[in-house]
Amino acid sequence: MTTPTTTPTRDHVELRSGAYADSVTLLQVSRAVQATPGVVAAQVAMATGLNLEVLEGMGFDIPASSPNDMVVALRLDPDADVSAALAAVDAALAPTRPTAGDTTVAPPRTTGSALRRTPPGAIALVSVPGASATVEAMDALEAGRDVMVFSDNVPVAEEVALKQYAATRGALVMGPDCGTAVVDGVGLGFANAVRPGRIGIVAASGTGCQQLLALLHHAGGTSEGVGVRHALGVGGRDLSAAVGGLATREALRRLDADPDVDLVVVVSKPPAAEVADALTRDTEALGTPVELGLLGRGQRDLTAVAEAVLERLGHTAPEWPVHGTDNTGPATGPLLRGLFVGGTLCDESMLMATEALGPIRSNIPLSDDLALDDELLIDAHTMVDFGDDALTQGRAHPMIDPTLRNEQLARAAADPATGVILLDLVLGHGAEPDPAALLAPAIEAARRDRPVPVVVSLVGTDLDPQGLDAQRDALVAAGAEVHLSNASATRRAIQLIEGAAR
Amino acid sequence: MSQPTVVTAGADMFADSVAGQAVDVERVDWRPPMPGTETDLATVATDPRRPEANRRAVEAMLGVTAHLVDVAPASEVLGLEKGQFLHAGPPIEWDRTSGPLRGALMGGAALEGLVDDPEDAVALFESGTGVSLEPCHHRSAVGPMAGVVTPSMWMWVLEDRATGRRTYCSLNEGLGKVLRYGAYSPEVLTRLRWMGDVLGPLLQAAVRGTEEATDVTGILTQMLQMGDEAHNRNRAGTLMLLRDLSPAMVSAGFDAKDVADVLRFIGGNDHFFLNLAMPACKLALDAGRDVPGSTMVVAMARNGTDFGIQVSGTGDEWFTGPAQVAEGLFLGDYGPDDANPDIGDSAITETAGIGGFAMATAPAIVRLVGGTVPDALATTRRMHEITLAENPRWSVPVLEFQGTPTGIDVTKVCRTGILPQINTGMAGAVAGVGQVGAGLVTPPAEIFPKALAALAARAASA
């Protein structure tokens, strides 16, 4: 990106050492400042290597700095007032949190300090950068408290160390890299608002958990007594060989001991075979019945797991809702393009599509030989998880910042080989306040030149802050076909591609 | 699991989201750690030995009661020989010494008769013949400011009766032109000789003649509730010591004029008790030494050139950086240019959780060190962010009797960037000047990442 020479602008760059705000806040600050009259471009960011690259890419000249400096980089119209722009920066950065009654007590600086100030039973939610997450999480475990590590990019060795220590303290580590939990009705991280009930969920998968929450909540609208007591996200790697299900075991122990839980469901990304076997044996020893929904070749999809849960509770699964089928015409090419924010949804779709269409190339491939390199759009069926660590390094999760996926959506739509685009959109606590407002225009633009079928699995509930219906309607109006079930959406996409091949 | 309070560290949106569900949220004001420490912090945080090691170090420290058991010359109790000099802070060679340490060594050489004129001692120390320098800390001792100890100086002897361990400190000379601030004029040496001839022997008789050995830790408990923080204010502690020792002093059979002189000297020196507070702190902290995996600081000390710390989990290794100049108030016409960088073993008080860490309990001196009462409360509260425990014996009435912040954790300093707050006197930069002021100072930040790296290296190989 360079500055067009036709419109002269001037740059204002300043370093603020000692200032700090998290990347999500700074993203919002940058957006707010960009909206100020006279500001052509604005980037307020910590001077990390990655952010400096972005700034240099924007054509800003950044003086020598350290990662602990905050950079304020503004590109202004020639006659714009720099002080007005800086005032907008300061206003956007000003803390909005309510001040405590006793202003002489400074806020805690570590998780440990905060836990000393709160009543027993408090739990910790850690979303600091991955390199610092373990340290904060250990504070909670040392205090014998449960912790949810939302942060991604936590080294697996540190995850193992945290969970081994937690086991000695009888504490539960939720996460890392699986930002979903509902603890006694309170959603932590990315979580859907659901009807309370007597089902317990253990999820080694964030969006897998959210899919299950959304489906069970929908079914609960007609089946009395279906609801969720706790959903404990244990981290996307918990059932890997390295971690060995340490947190899954503790979560199962908790739910088994809870007299208000009648049935436990375990959902997971494809687990390590030996870990899955051991887990199966362990669950048989529990007093509470357990429905295992571990994704994998030849295993049930998440929707089938939800249906089995309903059946076990004596209910018949409802028809899973679909809207906007009229929007969808035949596939416009031979290839399926899946662009996901949810890793488990991506896994589920890949497993289903592989069976029907053959190998799927991905950045989170089902086997190593199917891995994509830096180029995400190639001449094969592709499915990309934009929530994967490698694509979130130095930026916010795609549920918060959809820029990268929207760019890829435009590229996929422009590729004549693209036959169907399969997307997910996840609602709930922690997600964008109006994600459809960002995705719908991208879908509309993608379909402008030729009507590529866009099939969306919209994971959410009518209790979510965004409102399921409004989000769905916006997507349908933009030309998408919208499913509540990702399996149902995937099946539809496969069917369209198969139709084109015939 | 029932409707919990949620502590959040990280993105505000998640805290907002939880608060939006009508749940109590305590937000951590999280900021990135000291540059380059992330990996070492994670290594040390996940060192499986650390939590238990810190618990043990803290417990050992808090379990110590220091009793005053004797007063005797350093030659007897430390085995110090002529030509051996102890000094404050981490090890240092003569050619790197600052003015006040030089002045104190020169005066000490004259006191011991190694030279007639203190000025002649410069050549002696330059040659190095027959003289050696060693930190007080290496001999179970501590010394305020320059901390120079020579064989003829009389020492307080404190003992932990549970283990028999002892620590030592010289007798306090008072303020102004004194050896520990680098002054070595004839009046300084005259006073030191009187302390050796009269004060030391009388205190020895008094201590040995006092039936119940004075509980120095107990006096610290009381003085913290009487407006002393036991570093820059020791007024209540000094008076309580006098109360304990006076009967035996009077009945020890010494010349009445000497007894009166001694009582007048102690009563006129508000800092007399500092030299008991310091070895009491050292006695406690030494109990926390050498616990593998512990990240607790067991000594902070300065020699006027370097600021050094020692950490429980890294043995006797010193982690050093340049000593800083204190900010505060100056005596007379002196100003910041006259002050020497920070000096003395007295930061052992902050290491143990008093001094600057107990600032909230000593509002009377906040202006001496250039602050306000709210600053004092905030300082003590801030120190809780970097410490492992609260000391149940040392409590602060104005903070609802909360225990003082005790046991500095290297990892917490690196995580928060909050540096230990030290109350201190300021020595003149030029040898011979003496005290020029008092104020507040912090260690150089870089010594904590250095210590952290050493802890991480040991954790990785454990």
Automatic annotation (TrEMBL), chain A:
Ranges in coiled-coil conformation: none
Region (Disordered): 97-117
Domain ATP-citrate synthase/succinyl-CoA ligase C-terminal: 339-493
Alphabetized Gene3D superfamilies for the sequence: NAD(P)-binding Rossmann-like Domain, Succinyl-CoA synthetase domains
InterPro entries per record: SUCC_ACL_C (IPR005811), Succinyl-CoA_synth-like (IPR016102)
Pfam families according to UniProt: Ligase_CoA (PF00549)
Designated name of the protein: FdrA family protein
Originating species: Nocardioides pini
From TrEMBL, chain B:
Name of protein: DUF1116 domain-containing protein
Entries under InterPro entries matching the protein: AllG-like, OXTCase_su_AllG_h-dom
One Pfam family linked to the record: AllG
Species per Swiss-Prot/TrEMBL record: Nocardioides pini
Lineage of origin: Bacteria, Bacillati, Actinomycetota, Actinomycetes, Propionibacteriales
